[in-house]
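REQUEST
  id: r-88c1
  op: predict_structure
  target: DUF4406 domain-containing protein
  payload:
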Amino acid sequence: MKAVNDKVIQQTTDSIERPPGGGDPATEPDAAAVGADTVNKAAATTPKKIFVCSPYRPTSKTEECRKDELMANINRAKTACRILTTLGFLPLAPHLYFTQFLKDEDAQERNTGMKLGMRWLEEADELWVFGNTISEGMAAEIEKAHELNKPVRNLPEPGRVIELLLKSISEQYHVPLDDRKAENSNGQQEAAESEENNG
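RESPONSE
  id: r-88c1
  status: 200
  body:
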């Protein structure tokens, strides 16, 4: 066993071959080999990190209503993340992530989750608020974003965002959404009448 250790030590004390340009190969990429363009392209292709700010903790009085409100809050945050991903952003939703292993109903674990979420906020490029309801946790996140000079954007409910996005697309490509619905319902009605006549 000692011979193996000596051999390992001997191998690790050998000199490290330096790349052209001289830097430490383990920590410093060679600018000539990597090229400034490669570094700039990597920065340009990195998606913008958006901190998702939406309610999580239910405030309803009855247990049944609390469960429904919690599910609505989770679905709101998931929909917001889906929208952001579709737009090419990297959504950061700590209230979806940390609640997978920290208990929100336990004050100490909730506090830990909030602190970790604030660390994510420090890494984010912007904070987007979804909906009109501002919870205590959201208010703290918005205040922290202002302290960090992060842009804060207020958006409607995620479902409304999708509706507005579809409206914008339909206007841009001159596709009237209402006419398509009418055509579709007329087509379904004609198909049903045809089926009745043939049946």
